[in-house]
Q: What sequence folds into this?
């Protein structure tokens, strides 16, 4: 591996440029809007990730190839979505067989998702919003839960803002996710629980729950939000993110617009205290609508 | 269908999707030559081409064309 340790993002973008001209144009355009703070944060994240890769005998080049494989899959799923108006998978059983229970697919997919954190620029907008939400509410958070922790970036940010005196739990149904989170989170304050959240019955409720990009992976998002409702204290707050129009190999539930998401939130017994909607492409809203560009929704929810 | 005719029809699809009236494609045109041809618009171009010619591309084909000539060859082979 010959990438400059101080500027891994440049290396990643250069590699993508040499391997996928079309995607490179998008990445270059979208990254153009960011300042040094973004690249500093992205490089720090990549440094932690490269250590994880090296411990597994892998390189950043391997992760870049995983990412480009995911882009190929997303492109194919997008063509099907635009042809039919539906996601290709309709049930958890289908996705389980196709992705979660398929080690070869999961291996590349997990690494591709980690790479997407700083290459898909709307992820960064949402991360900044999350940091603001946590900062605004940190005084009232003594018990924090994250459901579907992914690569552990959000809970790491939360610990950094709230402080180490609070109690942190992370529940994830995926062993691969838990393993990556453990390696990415350089902190022993987090209790990891490998279980289905529906099988999780803690003794105490939580002041704050975060669940990023999980609702689109389940058949019944209302039921999942109701479960989180039961885990939240009366004055607690729930932070969720989920995308609209985002075909992927493991997405089941299709939200066509923000109102679809708001209805699910309301049906589960929540009010929206604050929200942010960000398109996945840096373009005017009119053009984004024309091209059915995916929009990431982030909501801070409270009990009705 | 002759490849020149396929190229003509593909050109019309690009003009429509990219909203670029003056666009003239040749067999050696690449994404670097066309400002708005990126991974997002590529998907919409693929969908429009599939519908227009009544064909379906594989995942590998969608990723594999390095210029317009290869895209036209692929359409002709269907």
A:
């Amino acid at each position: 591996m010959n990438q400059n340790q101080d500027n891994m993002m440049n290396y990643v973008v250069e590699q993508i440029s040499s391997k996928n001209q079309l995607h490179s144009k998008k990445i270059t355009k979208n990254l153009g809007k960011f300042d040094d703070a973004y690249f500093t944060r992205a490089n720090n994240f990549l440094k932690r990730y490269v250590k994880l890769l090296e411990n597994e005998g892998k390189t950043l080049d391997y992760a870049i190839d995983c990412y480009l494989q995911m882009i190929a899959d997303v492109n194919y799923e997008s063509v099907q979505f635009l042809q039919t108006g539906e996601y290709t998978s309709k049930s958890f059983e289908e996705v389980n067989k196709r992705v979660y229970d398929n080690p070869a697919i999961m291996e590349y997919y997990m690494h591709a998702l980690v790479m997407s954190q700083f290459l898909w620029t709307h992820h960064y907008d949402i991360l900044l919003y999350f940091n603001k939400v946590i900062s605004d509410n940190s005084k009232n958070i003594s018990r924090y839960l994250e459901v579907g922790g992914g690569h552990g970036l959000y809970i790491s940010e939360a610990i950094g803002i709230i402080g180490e005196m609070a109690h942190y739990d992370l529940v994830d149904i995926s062993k691969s996710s838990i393993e990556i989170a453990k390696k990415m989170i350089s902190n022993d304050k987090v209790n990891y629980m490998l279980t289905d959240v529906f099988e999780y019955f803690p003794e105490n409720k939580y002041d704050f729950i975060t669940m990023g990009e999980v609702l689109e992976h389940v058949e019944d998002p209302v039921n999942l939000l109701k479960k989180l409702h039961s885990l939240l204290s009366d004055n607690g707050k729930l932070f969720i993110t989920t995308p609209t129009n985002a075909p992927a190999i493991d997405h089941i539930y299709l939200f066509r617009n923000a109102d679809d998401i708001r209805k699910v939130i309301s049906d589960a017994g929540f009010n929206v205290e604050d929200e942010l909607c960000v398109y996945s492409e840096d373009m005017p809203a009119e053009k984004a609508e024309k091209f059915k560009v995916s929009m990431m929704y982030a909501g801070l929810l409270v009990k009705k | 269908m002759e490849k020149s005719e396929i190229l003509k029809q593909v050109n019309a699809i690009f003009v429509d999707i990219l909203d670029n009236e003056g666009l003239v494609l040749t067999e050696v045109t690449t994404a670097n030559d066309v400002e708005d041809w990126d991974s997002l618009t590529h998907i919409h171009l693929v969908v429009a081409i599939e519908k227009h010619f009544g064909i379906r591309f594989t995942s590998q084909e969608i990723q594999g064309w390095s210029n317009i000539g290869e895209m036209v060859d692929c359409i002709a082979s269907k």
